[in-house]
Specification:
222 residues, alpha+beta, L-fuculose-1-phosphate Aldolase, two-stranded antiparallel sheet, 7 helices, disordered N terminus
């Protein structure tokens, strides 16, 4: 935890965010959303402060069973994707999930073809970060600049690795990870019976209407 120089309100917020991070880690691990190595790390922008909260979790083989907490300056982290306003994100999570990681290893973008995930997202695809010498922020900004009519993706696959995700709130971002990984699993299983198919006419309107995204979706083609 931070030292005594942190004021009470900030200290309370950090403690609550830490508890949210632990809750997110637990439900992702318990549902089998994470790989066996439990790779799951969070960076969260603290509102009203030039501060980032970093929560790094332990490995299965670690004897220490408490996450590590670190506070850094937001403005000094120039490569953080949280600096990109078009993403509307305050939370960045790096995680390895079994089925989505298979798309990372295959170096292919992941198309979202499962309504439980799609109804919460306007983006239809998660790109693959192939140029690993370039930052995630640079790659995402380049895509957003080149395709302003595409909905911003909720994350990016880390080629031959896991994935980076972003969103609003620690728990809500973790929930999206669960749903996207569930989509990757079901689409993989669908490959045994002909493969996952695109949405039928009207399906997206129905799904986005349930979450209030239908009107907003009209501004994007993807």
């Amino acid at each position: 935890m931070p030292d005594g120089s942190v004021d009470l309100d900030l200290d309370t917020y950090i403690d609550r965010a830490r508890n949210d991070a632990i809750h997110a880690f637990n439900f992702l691990r318990e549902t089998g959303t994470l790989t066996a190595s439990w790779i799951f790390n969070i960076i969260h922008k603290i509102p009203g402060h030039d501060k980032l909260l970093a929560v790094n979790f332990y490995s299965p083989w670690s004897k220490v069973r408490e996450p590590s907490i670190k506070i850094t300056s937001f403005s000094e982290q120039k490569d953080s994707v949280l600096h990109e306003p078009r993403l509307e994100a305050d939370t960045f999570i790096h995680a390895h999930t079994p089925y989505l990681a298979s798309w990372s290893v295959a170096q292919k973008p992941f198309p979202i073809l499962y309504v439980a995930a799609q109804r919460h997202l306007l983006s239809r695809e998660i790109p693959n970060h192939l140029e690993r010498k370039r930052s995630v922020l640079d790659v995402i900004r380049e895509q957003l600049d080149a395709h302003p009519d595409w909905a911003p993706p909720p994350g990016i696959l880390e080629s031959n690795g896991g994935a980076n995700f972003w969103g609003t709130g620690i728990v809500d971002t973790a929930r999206l990870i669960l749903l996207i990984e569930e989509s990757a699993k079901l689409q993989s299983l669908a490959g045994q019976i002909g493969g996952a198919q695109v949405y039928t006419p009207g399906a997206l309107e129905v799904q986005w209407s349930r979450t209030g995204l239908w009107e907003k979706s009209k501004a994007f083609v993807k």
